[in-house]
Every structure is written in C-alpha cells, then in structure tokens.
Write a structure and sequence with these properties.
Elements: E1 32-33, E2 42-50, H1 56-70, E3 78-85, E4 91-99, H2 102-110, H3 112-119, H4 122-125, E5 129-135, E6 142-146, E7 161-162, H5 174-177, E8 196-201, E9 205-211, E10 216-224, H6 232-254, E11 260-269, E12 275-285, H7 288-297, H8 299-311, E13 319-327, E14 332-337
Antiparallel strand pairs: 1-7, 2-4, 2-5, 3-4, 3-11, 5-14, 6-13, 8-9, 9-14, 10-12, 10-13, 11-12
Helix pairs in contact: 6-8
GO molecular function: lyase activity; metal ion binding
Protein name: Phenylacetaldoxime dehydratase family protein
Keywords: Heme, Iron, Lyase, Metal-binding
C-alpha cells in the first residue's frame, strides 16, 4: 500500500496524522501521480452568464468562442464545459481548463486574441456577462482521490500515472493528509483574511476585480454515470444524487454562514448545450478547515459519505472522484464583467475603500 503523497514530495512530518501507522482503509482508492517536472498547475474557470431563454444562443456562441481560444500553443492541456442555474436564476456556462504550468496560462491570457477579446469594450455591451476565476496551486498544495484508475478527469488529465492502493482515505481528516504540504503546515488563511473588491462596483455592473487571500480552498467533486447500468445507475440517481443536491443547494444558499464563498453544482454539456450524464461541484472556501468542518458535520454530506462506504467495493461503472487545492493570494485571479453581484467571489467581497 502506498502513501497518497508521492515519494519526491515526502518529508519528515511535524504534524501528526489522525490515524495510527498500521491503519488499513476499508476499500481501495487511488490518486493521480504527476510527472516530477510539474511544480505548479493552473485551473481556469472561464464563465459566461445569461438570463432567460432569449439569451441562451448568445451565451453558447460566447462559450464556443472561449473554447476556440483554447486551441492555442499556450492553451490548456485539457478542458471541459459545464452549465448550471445559480441561486438567482441565471444560466452559467463554464469552460474549465487545466494547464501543466502557470507560465503557459499567463502567456495564453496575454496572447493578442485572448487579451483583445477580454479587454474589448464589446464585452461591456454584450447581452451576457463573463467571469474568470483562475488559481495556480503548487503540487504540494493539491490532492486528488479517485474510485477508478483510468481516464482521470479534471486535474487528473495532467497526471502521467495513477498510484497503487493508497493509505490516506476512509477517515475524517484524510483529505488534508493527502496534501504534501500537510506534513508541516496547517494551510490556514491569515486571521484577518477577507475577499476585497479592488476595482469596480458589483451593483453597478461593468468590470469588477476581487482580490483573494492565502489558502482559499477549491474543491471539484465529481460524479460520472455515463457508462453506469442497473443497479448502479439507480443507486446514483435514486440514492446519492438527491442527497447530493440537498447538500449543494444548502451551500449555494447558506454558504456564507459556514465559510463557503461560492458553490456551484454543474452539469457537463457539449458545445450545443446538450447535457451529459456527468456532474461536479465547484466550491470555493475560506479555508480547508471550513470545508472539513462542514463535511464532517452536515447531515447531507454524512448521508453521502455513509452511502459511499456501503457501496464502494461494488462500484464498477459509476465514477466518483474529487480534487482539492489551496493557493496563495498571488496565484489567484477573480474577475467579472456584467455579472450579478452574487456571482462567485463578489458575494462575500468587501467594497473598495472609495465606494
């Protein structure tokens, strides 16, 4: 049995684990193994926001344009496209890209075609809104977990290999202990950390830039039932999915009370907007600790966790996974154009001093 932390990232611990050295997990799980040359990656959430069926066509056209921009020498190694309706009733289409190094993403953002499009005054008069939420964690600042071993989604698409059975799973606190950084750091934000609007006014629309803070946590937790057949399909649709939706709706509507800045349960789509049998949650949290406390205490997550424990050894085609990261403030970008004030990190951001 392997450690979730790759050998080249292992170091002497100053923070003890929650379980004894002879702990044996109740079923097998795996993590992605990145090439040792990868030191930092970038996750880019590139959004288009619209309201009502009248603007759906324009939104999908904008999504297609963003996807076309990805076909670039410095574009991401992998991307997918999602849709969800947020708590204010707005449609949100998100193109999610993954880069194996932040320099490539920076070059992509600064390329004439991408920068010209984002910076154009046309974005201010378009009938849809836009956002980009981009974080670049180092390899010691993220962890993965998969109940399968092939065709890894999300950041897993950047991984060159898959682990053997890992030790750090099946107990509260195992998520944290899969982070290489957890060997010696608690990954806490500064005590006075807040989100801050550094330019623009969400209530007025237009362009808004939000500054984050160190150790914002980001989770992508996915469910893929495209290849599932009975009884796995019913297990997911009838038992897991309803409880999942309850928990994600709670975080969407009440996240500010528990330290969740933004929560979106999204469904994968094709470029024509047709839904696929795959979803994932995108959650931004003030800290890894806030995410842990909710996961360990909220009834909906406890029900999901218990159900998974009961069926984990029987899963065949139902693919469940997650990836969790923290990032430094200097490695975060949160920008919005004509989005409603409750979008993403704007909801909990303090106004600029001159407003």
């Amino acid at each position: 049995m392997e450690s979730a932390i790759d050998t080249h990232l292992t170091c002497p611990r100053s923070i003890s684990r929650r379980v004894p050295d002879d702990y044996q997990p109740p079923f097998p799980m795996w993590v992605g193994r990145a090439d040792t040359e990868i030191e930092q990656i970038t996750m880019g959430y590139l959004g288009v926001q619209s309201h009502g069926e009248a603007h759906r066509a324009q939104a999908l056209t904008a999504v297609a344009e963003i996807v076309a921009h990805l076909d670039h020498p410095h574009g991401p190694s992998h991307h997918d496209v999602t849709h969800h309706v947020d708590g204010e009733g707005y449609d949100n289409f998100i193109v999610v890209g993954y880069w194996a190094d932040p320099q490539s993403c920076t070059r992509w953002l600064g390329s004439p075609e991408v920068d010209r499009w984002w910076s154009s005054d046309d974005r201010l008069t378009d009938p849809v809104g836009y956002f980009r939420e981009i974080v670049s964690p180092r390899v010691d600042q993220f962890e993965t977990l998969y109940a399968f071993q092939d065709r890894l989604p999300g950041v897993g698409a950047l991984m060159s290999d898959i682990s053997g059975d890992i030790n750090e799973h099946g107990y509260w606190g195992s998520m944290r202990e899969r982070f290489p950084l957890s060997q010696n750091e608690w990954m806490q934000p500064p005590r006075d950390a807040t989100l801050r609007i550094v330019s623009g006014d969400p209530a007025a629309g237009g362009r808004v830039v939000v500054a984050g803070h160190d150790n914002i946590a980001l989770i992508r937790s996915g469910q893929d039932w495209r290849e599932a057949v009975e009884p796995e399909r019913s297990l997911y649709l009838d038992e897991i999915q309803p409880t999942l939706h309850q928990g994600m709706d709670f975080l969407r509507d009440n996240g500010a009370d528990v330290g969740c800045y933004s929560n979106r349960l999204v469904r994968n789509i094709d470029l024509d907007g047709r839904p696929l049998d795959e979803t994932y949650n995108i959650g931004h949290w003030r800290s890894l600790e806030k995410l842990e406390r909710w996961a360990e205490s909220h009834p909906t997550h406890l029900r999901i966790f218990t159900t998974f424990f009961k069926v984990a050894t029987e899963l065949d085609k139902l693919r469940l996974y997650h990836e969790v990261s923290v990032s430094d403030a200097q490695d975060q970008i949160f920008e919005y154009i004509n989005c409603h004030p409750g979008t993403g990190m704007m909801r909990d951001a303090s106004p600029a001093a001159n407003q």
